[in-house]
## 1
Amino acid sequence: MEKEKVLISACLIGLNCKYSGGNNKNEKLIELMREKDLVPICPEQLGGLSTPRPSAERKENKVITKEGMDVTKEYKKGAQEVLNLAKKLNIKKAILKSRSPSCGVNKIYDGTFTNNLTDGDGVTAELLKENDIELISSDEYL
Ligand code: SF4
C-alpha cells in the first residue's frame, strides 16, 4: 500500500535550513519515515531567503528581522510555494516546527525577540490551515 504523503518542516529531519545554518533534527520524526512519505519543505528558503539568514519574528501582519528589515514578502512567497506543492501532490497533513514565524502552529514568538510566546501561527502554517490542511506541531514528537 502506498504510504500517506505528509509535508514536514525540512529542518526537523536534519536539513541545515535553519536561519542559523543548523537544523532541528528529531529522531522520532526520522523514525516516522518508515510509515509515512514525508515531503520536506522549508518555506523560508522557498521564499528566496538565504541560509544562514537574520532571525525574524511575526509582528502584527508583518515579518520583521531583528535588525528591522521587512521580510513579509519572502515569507508569503514561501507559504504560497508550500501550498502549491501540497495541492499538486494532494497532501492533506503537515508536521511543522513549533514556534517558527513560518512553521509555528498555535504559538509563535511575539515579535519582541525576547523568547516570549503569543497565540498565533507562522505565515505558512496559517495559509495551510486556511486551506484545510491538518497541522501537527513538532512539539507532539518531543
Ligand atoms: Fe525549519 Fe520552517 Fe524555519 Fe525552514 S522555515 S528552517 S522548515 S522552521
Note: The radius of gyration is 14 Å.
## 2
Amino acid sequence: MKLVLAIVNSDDAPSVLNSLTEKGFQVTKLATTGGFLKVGNTTFITGVEDDKVDEVISIISDKSNKRTQAVPSATTAEMGMYRPIPFEITVGGATVFVLNVDKFEKL
Ligand code: 2BA
C-alpha cells in the first residue's frame, strides 16, 4: 500500500477532490500553507493499493493547472525611493509524494 500526498492550488482542490471520490478513492483534505509564497494551498492524503498509484496521480495531474505568479523581491533605488521588483514564478500543477505504508488499520 502507498500513501499519496499531493499539494495542489486551492482553486483546483474541488475538482481534484470530486474526481478522486467519483473514482472511489478515499481522500483526506488538509488546508496547508506554502512556505515560500506563504499563501494557502491544499494537501490531499490518499491511501491506495500499489497498482492504483498511477491512476491517482493521473487524476490529480488532469485537474491541477500550472500558474504563474508575481512575487515581489529585491528593491531598487530610484530617486532615493526603494520599490519592489516583481518576478514571476511557476506554481503547480501539483507536487506529489508517494510513500510506502508499513501498516494500515481502521480501529
Ligand atoms: P510554496 O512553498 O509557497 O512555493 C510556491 C512556488 O514558489 C513553488 O511552486 C515554486 O515555483 C516557487 N518556490 C518555492 N520555493 C522556492 C525557492 N526557495 N526559491 C524560488 N522559488 C521557490 P511549486 O514547486 O509548484 O510548489 C507549490 C507548493 O508545493 C509549495 O508552495 C509548497 O507548499 C509545496 N512544495 C513544493 N515542493 C515541496 C517540497 N519539496 N517539500 C514540501 N512541500 C513542497
Note: The longest helix spans residues 53-63.
## 3
Amino acid sequence: MNIGFVGLGIMGSAMAANLLKGSYRVTVWNRSAEKCRELAQQGAVIADSPRAAAESSDVVIAMMANPDAVRSVRDGSDGIIAGLASGKGLVDMSTVDAETSRESADLAQQKGALFLEAPVAGSRKPAEEATLTIMAAGDRELYDTVLPALEKMGRKIMFVGETGSAARMKLANNLVMAGMLTALCEGMALASKSGLDEAQLLDVLDSGAVSNPMFRLKGPQIAANGEFPVAFPLKHMQKDLRLALQLAESVGQPLFATAAINELFKAALAEGWGDLDFAAVGRTVRK
Ligand code: NAP
C-alpha cells in the first residue's frame, strides 16, 4: 500500500517517519517545504501538492492543525479530494469537529473513495515511539485496510463507529486533560503562594489516587515556570476546548468547568503563548 501523508507538524512528521520505518512507501506534502526535506532524507517522496500526494497513493493521511487547515489541504484544484478516485481512501487524523469530518466523508464519497477519521491521543513522545492511542470511525472497510499502517503509529487502536464518533471521543478526552492540567497549575500556584514546597506537593500527588504520567511530566516544568518543551501547542488545546464547547451546546450538555478553563486558555493565547506547550497556561494562573 502506498501512503500519502499531508501535514508534517510535531505529530505528522513523527508518524510519517514511523510509516517509513515500517517499510511503507510514503509520499509527503507540507505547507512549509523544509519539513518535507527532513522526511525525504528518511526515504519519503515529496509531492508538489496535496492533490499529487493523493494521486500517487492508495491511501492519503492528513494530520492538520485545525478544521481550517484541513479544508485548505482538502479542497480546491490542488486539494486531496481532487486527487482521490474510486478505490482510494482518505484518513484524517487531525483533531477536528464531527461536522468537518462528515464534510470530508461526503467529499471523498463523491469521488468514489472511502473515508476514515482517526484522531490520536498521546503527544510528541508517543508519536515518536509509535505508542499513540488511535480512535477511528467511518468506513469499516477502510479501517480494516489501513489497520496494519495504524499499528505502525499507535499501540491502542479502536474503531468507535460512524463518522463523527471518533472526533467527539477525542474532544471528550481532551477536555478531561485540560481540566487535569488546570487543576495541577492551580494546586501548584496555591502551594507556592502559601509558602509550601511545590516539589513536595508533586510528591504527595504522585503517591495518591491522582498520580498520572502527565503530572509527572508537566509538574516539574510548571514549577520551573520557565521553558516548556513544546509537545502539544497551547493554541491546539484551546481549539479543542472551543470545539468541545460547541459540541456540548449542540447536544445540550452544560460544561461548567470547561467553559471557565476555555477562558483561561484564551487569556494565555492573548498573552502570545499559543505556540508554547499547553503547560504554559500555568503562567496565566500565576499572573
Ligand atoms: P503542528 O505541529 O502545529 O502542525 C500543524 C500542521 O498543520 C503543520 O503541518 C502545518 O503546516 C499545518 N497547517 C496549519 N495551518 C495550515 C494551513 N492553513 N494550511 C496548510 N497547512 C496548515 O500540530 P501538531 O501538534 O502536529 O498537531 C496536529 C493535529 O494533531 C492537531 O489537530 C492537534 O490538535 C492534534 N494532536 C496534537 C497532539 C500533540 O501533542 N501535539 C496530540 C494529539 C493530537 P506548517 O508546517 O507549514 O505550519
Note: The pocket of NAP is lined by residues 7-12, 30-32, 35, 63-66, 68-69, 72-73, 94-95, 120, 123-124, 231-233, 236 (CB under 6 Å).
## 4
Amino acid sequence: MNVIFLGPPGAGKGTQAKILEETYGMVQLSTGDMLRAEVAAGSDLGKEAKAVMESGGLVSDELVIGIISSRIDQDDCKGGFMLDGFPRTVPQAEALDVMLKDKGFNLDHVLELQVDDEPLIGRITGRFTCGDCGEGYHDMFKKPAKEGVCDKCGSSNMKRRADDNEETVRARLQAYHDQTAPIVGHYGKQGLVRPVDGNTAIDEVTNQLKTILG
Ligand code: ADP
Ligand code: ADP
Ligand code: ZN
C-alpha cells in the first residue's frame, strides 16, 4: 500500500507515519527529514535549501522531485511507502503522478489531516525530537516518561528545529494554504482523498487512519 500524508505543518503527519510504519510495514518518506539531512551534511543540495527552509518558504519543485525519485527507487519502498511532506505543490503532484506510473507504483490513499491554524502554532513551537532515533515529542502533548530522556532509545540528545518558531510557522502556514491546499482538488478528481479529523488526540487520529487503511 502506498499513501500520501497531506496536512499543514504540525498536523501530525510525522507522528502518525512513525506509528503506522510499525503496524503496516510501510516506510516513511519525509522530504523535510531528507532536506534537513542534506543541510546537516553541508551538501550542495543542502546549501541550496537551507535559507529557504529557515524562512518558512518552499524549496524548488525540481530539487524535491529529484530527491523523492531516487529515494523511491530504493528496495525498502517495494513493501509500501508513506509520503510525508511531499507533494507540496500542484506541479509536484503532477510530477509524482508521472513518476509513479513510470516506476509501476499505485497510489492507494491521500490521507488529509485537517487541523485548525491556531492549535498548529502551539504544536510546532512545543515540538522536539530525539536526535539519535528520531522519535518525536511535545512539551505538553507527548512528554517523555523521564524529562529530557528518549523513551525509545534512552538518549538525552533532544533537538528542536531552527524553523519551529512562531514567525516562521506563520510563513509555513501561509505557504500551506497558498501552495499545498490546492493539491486536495488534484487528488479529489482521482477519488483518493480521505479526510481525517486531526484536531483530536494522537491515538484517536491513529484509530481514524486504521479504519481507512484496514
Ligand atoms: P507534522 O509532521 O505534520 O509537521 P508532527 O507529527 O511533527 O507534525 O507533530 C507536531 C507536534 O505536535 C509534535 O510535537 C507532536 O508530538 C505533536 N502532535 C502530533 N499529533 C498531535 C495530536 N493529535 N494532538 C496533540 N499533539 C500532537
Ligand atoms: P512541516 O511538516 O513541519 O512543515 P517538513 O519537515 O515537512 O515540515 O518541512 C520543513 C521544510 O522543508 C519546509 O518548510 C520546506 O522549506 C522544506 N520542504 C519539505 N518538503 C518540501 C517539499 N515537498 N517541497 C518544498 N519544500 C519542502
Ligand atoms: Zn531516541
Note: The chain has a mean pLDDT of 96.
